[in-house]
Design a protein that fits this description.
globular, about 220 residues, Nucleotidyltransferase, domain 5, 2 domains, 5 strands, alpha/beta, Arc Repressor Mutant, subunit A
């Protein structure tokens, strides 16, 4: 094909204890990839929140196609019952995105420690045979098309977190490293005797606070 459809795949919110994980795929024709360079599209972590929001809107307006999927905390927790890892769950959703968009060339931020294996696993689960799959760690920092997917995913997750803040108060960023998030979770569990609906119950952070606040376990039992 002289002008193949190029797709970038990435996620946002893999590690937080609060809120969903968003997975996104975005496609441009090869002849239109210059748009990403001209607009300095790169990994969402290297773009300010204001710039991310603007770019996300522009990318959706100017791309060939895109698709995003929200994995709720409940869906993330249920993977344990299905005996699948977070990497496998992520792969399943990326397959769903790619099967709908049907690009010829795929660039994906590898979730697996073995980036080649992650790409091969994606290929074997697709309903068609793409010409090329490039699976790399830090692909969002290498390929602008993956950076574009990371921007859309990050903005969509941030919007959900902002809505949670409007409803429940300042929950912080949702990441375990955020003191505001941990303080909110601890105070909520102490008062309500159970985690909020937007918390991931299978996360060590949630289990630890539940055990120390409700089950009377001592911190020394974890060391």
């Amino acid at each position: 094909m002289c002008d193949p459809l190029i797709c970038g795949l990435d996620e946002a919110g893999r590690g937080p204890v609060f809120g969903p994980m968003i997975l996104c795929g975005i496609c441009f024709r090869k002849s239109k990839l210059h748009y990403l360079i001209e607009n300095d599209v790169k990994d969402s972590k290297r773009v300010s929140p204001k710039r991310r929001a603007k770019l996300s809107k522009l990318l959706k307006q100017n791309c060939h196609s895109f698709k995003s999927i929200e994995l709720t905390p409940q869906e993330i927790d249920q993977r344990k019952e299905k005996n699948i890892s977070l990497n496998q769950l992520e792969l399943i959703k990326f397959v769903e995105i790619v099967n709908e968009l049907k690009p010829e060339h795929i660039f994906i931020d590898a979730a697996d420690i073995d980036e080649i294996r992650f790409g091969n696993n994606l290929k074997t689960k697709l309903k068609y045979n793409p010409e090329k799959i490039i699976s790399k760690h830090k692909a969002d920092d290498i390929y602008p098309i993956v950076g574009a997917a990371s921007i859309i995913a990050k903005v969509e997750r941030d919007e959900i977190i902002e809505k949670l803040k409007e409803k429940y108060g300042n929950i912080g960023s949702g990441y375990p490293s955020d003191e505001r998030t941990i303080r909110f979770l601890r105070e909520w569990i102490r008062e309500k005797r159970s985690p909020p609906i937007f918390a991931r119950l299978t996360w060590k952070t949630t289990k630890f606070i539940l055990d120390t606040e409700i089950n009377n376990k001592k911190i020394t039992q974890y060391f």
